[in-house]
Amino acid sequence: MATFQKILIANRAEIAVRVMRTCRELGITTVAVYSELDRDAFHVRYADEAYALGGETAAESYLNTDAILDVIRRSGAEAVHPGYGFFAENADFAEAIQSLDGPRGPVTWIGPPPSAIRIMGDKISSRKAALEAKVPMVPGTTEALESAAEVVAFGDEHGWPVAIKAAFGGGGKGMKIARSADEAEKVLESAQREAQAYFGRPEAYLERYLERPRHVEIQVFSDTHGNHVWLGERDCSVQRRHQKLIEESPAPGVDDATRKAMGEAAVHVAAACGYVGAGTVEMLYQPPERPSGQAGDFFFLEMNTRLQVEHCVTEMVTGFDLVREQIRVAAGEPLSFTQEDVQPRGHSIECRINAEDPAKKFLPSPGTITRFDRPAGPGVRIDHGYEAGDTISQFYDNLVAKLIVWGSDRDEAIARARRALGETLIEGIKTTIPAHLTLLAHPDFVAGNHSTKWLEDEVDPGLLATASGSGDSGATSISETPETQDTRAEHTVPVEVDGKRFTVRLWLPDLPAGAAPSGRVKPRMTAGAGAGGAGSGSGTISAPMQGTIVKVLVSPGDAVKAGESVVVLEAMKMENHINAESDGTVKEVRVEPGQTVSGGDV
Fold first, then answer.
1. What angle do CA 67, 501, 546 make, to 5 degrees?
2. What is the pLDDT of residues 31-41, one digit of tens each?
3. How many CA atoms does the CB half-sphere of 227 hold within 13 Å?
4. Which of helix, strand or coil describes residue 589?
5. Distance (Å, rounded) from C-alpha 60 to C-alpha 43?
6. Cα–chain-centroid distance for residue 428?
């Protein structure tokens, strides 16, 4: 097929490596970009070339348009793949890419046209487009919110709770739930802050919040020759904080009539907006109350104009490489398959392994990975963005890896996922692996009787606390060991020349005892590092993790009750409310908005 010689991946971690792997199979040179914190990250080490963007936070690096455009010019990249998150659904960025001249003509954007991104990437205009296409839809607004009064008016009309969602977001980022008029203002502010931090845009809109739906999405693909197909559906109902934890394909319990109706509706939406490339149409599915043979109800939720995190399960059941297909379509080729060629086989499950502590309501767990043993065997795939020695920073998303399995049916896929999770060992941080093992064995999940609120509202938190305390993933006490020593005289080290990264082999004197190879320092951690605030009744509230203070909710002299939020801490692009652990009066506040704190800071 006609293709490119060099592609820049404007992203980081797991998705950047995923794209690079397909490029390597196609003989395409890959270009990575990196922030100061990612100078020696796995995606940087894996790429053929790597260039510095400067800065530490996403806004200073991966969301810095001028810096990325400069690297495209300097590297001679012919095309840009955005991955997901960051600029993946930003029409202005796509247009900026297409305005550049590459070595063989204009630089190609590996994604949908900017016009389609504007219609569907903006969740507000996508609702308008779906309404015009007569696709069933949950009640919601079609204009950006300007005040909390609009939230109150909508809730009073359609009923509480309501969902406030980032207009330019996805993946649950920037989505907050207001359960009463009293919460409207603070929840709106929180959603807008999170949307700005993750997507660079604060706009938000409203939807009626359904209490127990299933989250089912349709993978669509379109080319420049007028072909539009759908590649089956995925169930993404196991969520916490409105972000997915387990995904699978096909969706359990969805009848063939509903599956076909969803697929046809998704293709209709894609064709109506002139879509090109990979996209996902997300639906809320309400199963029939009784097994009557009738189709369940479904409602259009949004369209994600990019590759999804969970695209892997679709690849496992269809046999298609969706990244390869993205590159093919961007190069002007037609899709390599037709709708008749899409014949899903078997069952696939994906577990998102995040740096979080399930025993503490999935609190983020940044830190350095000291050990990472990956699983193997039949039907097992793992897409990862970190290796042992790499650090999970508070400034970025906390997805460490994705474990994907395939089985001949759902029962086999569940058993295989549990076996593979048991083979996965990650130390130095807490991860969601214990939660996955517990949830995959839960009778509700096995029976397919779960919803988007199942994990947070129906699963006994004690099950997760017990599982997380078993030590399956993440050590609480790490010390230097002889294995961290390097007595070799030959060393491979990364160097940077004029913003471009090179790897150099040097012959140097032996490293001192206890030093880590490749310039990585493995920190000494003690039991309780990153733990929560002081015990109940201590009168002291401390940071449970490294992060940035975004809002202080109390002042000296204020009376507070146990469980009341006193400060909002942002870590890994998520806002966390830090609560008082006892009744009392605030005597002193030692932080202010914008201040960075470490775990344990008072």
1. 70
2. 999 999 999 99
3. 17
4. coil
5. 18
6. 21
User: Tokens 């509903």, residue?
Assistant: 258
pLDDT in tens, 328-384: 999 999 999 999 999 999 999 999 999 999 998 899 999 999 999 999 999 999 999
Of 35, 34, 59, 36, which is closest to residue 47 (Cα–Cα)?
34
- Give the pLDDT band (50/70/90) at residue 485: very low
Could you tell me the pTM of the whole model?
0.78
Average pLDDT over residues 474-499: 54
Q: Which residue has the tokens 């460490």?
A: 400
Q: From the centroid of its chain, how far is CA 306? A: 13
CA torsion, ordered 304, 310, 313, 318, to nearest 10 deg: 30
Query: Would you state the pLDDT for residue 411?
Result: 98
| Whole-number Cα distances in Å, 474 to 140, 527, 547, 598 | 42, 12, 20, 19
Strands 49-52 and 297-304, sheet pairing: unpaired
Amino acid at 112: P
Neighbours of 231 (CB within 10 A): 25
Token pair, residue 209, equals: 């919040």
**DSSP type of residue 48:** S
Q: Say how far apart CA 576 and CA 569 lie, in whole Å.
A: 5
Residues 408-413, mean pLDDT to the nearest whole number: 98
What's the start-to-end Cα distance of the chain, in Å?
59
**Cα torsion 568, 54, 42, 100: sign:** positive
Angle at which helix 148-158 crosses helix 184-199, to 10 degrees, equals 120
